[in-house]
Design goal:
Blueprint lengths: L10 E3 L5 E3 L3 E2 L6 H14 L3 E3 L7 H12 L14 E6 L5 H15 L4 E6 L6 H16 L3 E7 L3 H9 L8 E5 L7 H9 L3 E5 L11 H9 L4 H11 L3 E2 L6 H8 L8 H8 L16
Parallel strand pairs: 3-4, 4-5, 5-6, 6-7, 7-8, 8-9, 9-10
Antiparallel strand pairs: 1-2
Helix pairs in contact: 1-2, 1-9, 2-3, 3-4, 7-8
The structure holds NADP nicotinamide-adenine-dinucleotide phosphate.
The site of NADP nicotinamide-adenine-dinucleotide phosphate (NAP) has 28 residues, from helix 9.
Length: 288
């Protein structure tokens, strides 16, 4: 991909022919309407076009309100419309077909955004039959126009193989997993990329836990960027869709400005070598 392709207006094509924004705003643990408005208005004003929420985060309502208030505000200088924004949300638990259909409808209602652009099974927990049953619900919701794109999150290779072997009507477009230089998940990400499944990187900033690591700070110095920009660029150069979370306006803007940080192959390898399988939150990729 060309260097200039790594900007907030860049998109990546998914397997149903549509595209998703290459860098998106994460909103895990963002709560309160005022904080959400501030983050979402700053992000959309800066050029972000995607927001990653979840039923689990209990903030779909706040995200939806913030998006809608942005669209009708003077901050909307680019005259964006609802269809210009990618709203992602996720199913909390793989309980049943009907519970999934209900959750999808509830997420749409909570957000007030009319439909969901990208809907993910948040994890593989629940066992094989529940995963496949809930995936059928996602397929049917896509058929009814409630969801545009279906995907999964925290699925390991065996979960993906099992879903692909079930001859689904819809192949998952995305697998969202924790990925950063300290947890590279290279086997899983290579598998996804080979199957045409886009890898979304959650925790791309390692939750702020490694900003002062000597390799990160020395490479950030070398490329005259911030440690966060270095981490985001690492993600992009591997072909992932990073979802950096911030509620801090200058950081939201900084995290989207990575087009002129080009990490050389040699330094990409140095960063890859930092892998310590660091799990910052949860790792369900090996569950049954
Ligand atoms: N599918 C899943 O299971 C799953 C799990 C976890 C997360 N996610 C998604 O992925 C998103 C990102 O992951 P995450 O929230 O866990 O962590 P993250 O994006 O790796 O890190 C967020 C932390 O980094 C700080 N930060 C942001 N920009 C910075 C900068 N430029 N310089 C220094 N610090 C900076 C933030 O602080 P401030 O906000 O205070 O600025 C926050 O403390 C989530 O928000 C969520 O949407 C998905």
């Amino acid at each position: 991909m060309a260097q200039s392709a790594y900007s907030l207006s860049s998109t990546v094509k998914v397997n149903n022919g549509s595209s998703i924004p290459l860098i998106q705003l994460g909103v895990y643990m963002v709560s309160g309407q005022e904080t959400m408005n501030h983050a979402v208005h700053t992000a959309l004003g800066a050029g972000y076009r995607g927001i990653d929420s979840a039923e689990w985060y209990q903030n779909e309502r706040e995200v939806g309100r913030a998006v809608r208030s942005f669209l009708s505000s003077p901050d909307n200088k680019a005259s964006l419309r609802r269809e210009d924004i990618e709203f992602t949300t996720k199913l909390k638990s793989n309980i049943s077909y009907s519970a999934t259909r209900k959750s999808i409808k509830r997420s749409i209602e909570e957000s007030g955004l009319g439909y969901i652009d990208l809907y993910l099974l948040h994890s593989p927990y629940g066992g094989k039959s529940k995963r496949l049953e809930c995936w059928r619900a996602v397929e049917d919701a896509i058929g009814e126009g409630e969801i545009k794109i279906g995907g999964v999150s925290n699925f390991g290779i065996k979960h993906l193989e099992e879903l692909l072997a079930s001859t689904p009507r819809v192949t998952p477009a995305v697998n969202q997993v924790e990925i950063h230089p300290f947890n590279t998940q290279s086997k899983l990400s290579k598998f996804c990329q080979k199957k045409g499944i886009v890898v979304q990187a959650w925790g791309p900033l390692v939750r702020g836990m490694r900003m002062e690591h000597h390799t990160i700070s020395s490479l950030a110095k070398k490329y005259t960027c911030s440690p966060a920009q270095l981490l985001i660029r690492w993600s992009l150069q591997h072909g992932y869709v990073p979802l950096p979370k911030s509620v801090t306006p200058h950081r939201i803007i900084e995290n989207g400005q990575v087009h002129d940080v080009e990490i050389e192959a040699f330094d990409m390898e140095k960063l890859d070598a930092l892998d310590e399988h660091l799990v910052t939150d949860w790792d369900p990729t090996n569950t049954d």
